[in-house]
Amino acid sequence: xxxxxxxxxxAEWLDGWNSHDLDRILTHYHDxxxxxxxxxAQLTGDVSGTVHGKEALRAYWATGLERIPELRFELVDVRxxxxxxxxxxxxxxxxxxxxxxxxxxxxxxxxFGAYGETLAN
Length: 121
Fold this sequence. Notes:
Strand content: 35-45%
Largest sheet: 6 strands, mixed
Mean pLDDT: 93
Low-confidence stretches: none
Helix content: 25-40%
Number of strands: 6
Oligomer: single chain
């Protein structure tokens, strides 16, 4: 993992989200991905706030895109670690979010979203 990869990934990730192209976004995720977010609990009612598997992630994000048609992200910063990267961004209501993504074999195997004062509505 290096900063060049992280920046390229973040740009593709951001473009996918801003185009609302779920298939494009999901190309970066492993079939066995695990993802956690307080928005999962908010949108699905699942208090664990975690989804397991690419199809569960697809269902969650499809619900989010349907409920938040104005969804838009603005990149703030990208940071890199050994097998992970962090994408800091502002969402459509100005909330600060950090997405932490851990990779295996070039794909995201796990991740979580961490929010500031505001969630995604």
